[in-house]
Amino acid sequence: MTERVTIEGLDELHRRLEEVGEQIREAAGKAIKDSAEAVRDDAREQVRVDTGRMKRGLKAFVKKADLSAEVGWRDPDLYYAKFHEFGTTRIPANPALTAAAEAERSRLPDRITEDVRRAIGR
Fold this sequence. Notes:
This protein is mainly alpha-helical and 122 residues long.
């Protein structure tokens, strides 16, 4: 004996599941962007200021393709930012970027959870 079950609307279900997957991906991307910007803003508040170039030159770069972000100084003229961050024999370390990233580490899971919940309507 054979039973046959026909599920109506299966194509629609697959389409909706793909949409939800994309909504989750977009929500996670937003959380990562917000997190990177929070690290940047936090570090800007802590960085040493002489001319303000290091503060202005600190940027957040979000990579949507792999849901990642980088925060730092990319301008080659700001090569000295690493000396301030890690210190030298003459300059004491001021790990502004490191401290900001560590502070954000514990906040990121909650950011992702909240944005995903909001995206899927829960």
